[in-house]
Fold this sequence. Notes:
The complex is a heterodimer of chains A (about 280) and B (about 325). With about 280 residues, chain A is an all-alpha fold. Chain A is built from 13 helices and no strands. Chain A has helices at about 5-35, 40-45, 55-65, 65-95, 100-115, 120-130, 140-160, 165-175, 180-190, 190-210, 210-215, 225-235, 240-275. Chain B is built from 14 helices and no strands. Chain B starts with a helix and ends with a helix. Residues about 1-20 of chain B have low confidence and may be disordered.
Amino acid sequence: MGNRYTWRTSIVEILAILLGLVFLVPFYYVFSNSLKSFAEILTNTSSLPKVLMFDNYVNAFEKLDFLIVFKNSLIITIASNIVLVIFCSMAAYMLVRTKKKISNIIFMTFVAAMIIPFQSLMIPLIKTAGNLGILNSIWGLVFMYLGFGSGMTIFLYHGFIKGIPLELEEAAIIDGCSRFGVFWRIVFPLLKPITVTIVILNSLWIWNDFLLPSLVLQDPELRTIPLATFFFFGQYTKQWDLALAALVIGIIPLLIFFFTMQKHIIQGITSGSIK
Amino acid sequence: MNNESKLDTVKGSAITKQKSTKVSESVSFMNKKKWKDAGLFTLFVGPVLLAFTLIVLIPFFTGIYYAFTDWNGITGTVKWVGLDNFKYLFSEDKQFQQSFMLTTKYTVVSIILTNVIGFGLAILVAQRLKTRNLLRTVFFMPNLIGGLILGFIWQFIFVKGFASIGELTGIPLFELAWLGDANTAFWGIVIVSLWQGAGYIMIIYIAALQNVPQELIEAARIDGANRFQILRHITMPLVAPAVTICLFLTTASSFKVFDANLSLTNGGPFKSTEMLALNIYTEAFVNNRYGIGEAKALIFFIVVAAITVLQVTISKKREVES
């Protein structure tokens, strides 16, 4: 752990790189085989493709209805993030600033509910959702993400808001700002670091979620990327040339998201889990 | 709206300052302020509380009720059956018992391995390597891929990739039919969860390692401690809070594993890798036995809640010690 780069460090470095390569092997297999013909996948699984077959991608793109499912995933993720950030930051703010028993009870209920596993809720949830008439609708799903994400989101905001000094708000109120104005003009901009963390954690969760959308969205037009991938595999079982290209198409949006947000994602996970 | 409330505040401060003015006026103002506060509270907390109540609280409590009924999810009539569902689960439902045991085994194995490997990776990339940022990215990347796609990727690796490596190298380990045998399929799921989970845990350990004061390590080195002693007596105790968090995260995620289980083996061969979450799902949505499914879900909740409470208690104890 010293500052010098010694022969010992270089040996560690070589071992670390080898380990990194082992971690990348699954990516290699999926990417390289997605560019091969079906026959070549069966005969030369490990080697690099002889000819690059982009046809697989064209076919998979069409069969997945990729533009539609990508649009659905995007709308659901963005809309859920917006409602979670708006309503949970407002609620957390009021729960911190109102020093009453009721605030404490409500906050503790949100936190306690975080330990309920989804599987214990899903069966009656579908019945409740049916009664509310929000099954088979993207906006119904967004509403559910607001409910399910609220515990964690309010918990993170609550901890952060406690650290914001009250004087700023008092000054604004003396200057004639309403409580609503105080929150949106003074407090909310100060929440930016934790908002970034929350958006990242919620995006990874919602984008990749399979079980909830599979229970809520029945209409093929409404499918998200994980749902489309699932049905694709059911239909084209073992047609690896198409299937692998579909997997790669499913991964690419996330890789782009990761490489543009890398620093924030790492920070987000760190602060999200240590709180 | 803004102007109105501005006026109100100005009026309010004027009245409270002149306490000697008409009492009745000030009382009516106090009532007004109280109502205004309650209104603001509802405006800020109400929307998310409504969603939370409809989506989490009501299903949770009705779910507990259904656990004691014979509800099949379709007919309107629901009959109260008392503890019959639970009796059935503990005496007759062998698949449930097997899934429960398997999930416990999987959770223990994957918690230990994920944390050991995650911590090892963190120690590795905490050193002054030229490629350390790149390596962190590489180890973390599998985490972006959701459980479902992850399972499909690894299905290909196990079926075609491993077979091909086996052919090339002749190592018998790679020539096994990984997903076709109950025992190796179990380890297959473990490998997948390690490949994905270790990088996430690594990030948390890296953050914890960075918070260990360098002066302490320098001091220990001057006193003649070797690398292992420093790790054992300085680093490890100082990262203990992170260990608690990582144990909690890995326990919660392993117990609830569903997506990867579904897409990698779908519980096969012959339901031998059907974990608890998948078992509940099948009971409810495939067999249409919602009452029994809910009873399973209730047991599942109690186990997860008990483990969480235990974790929190242990972590509190540790905080007092350090």
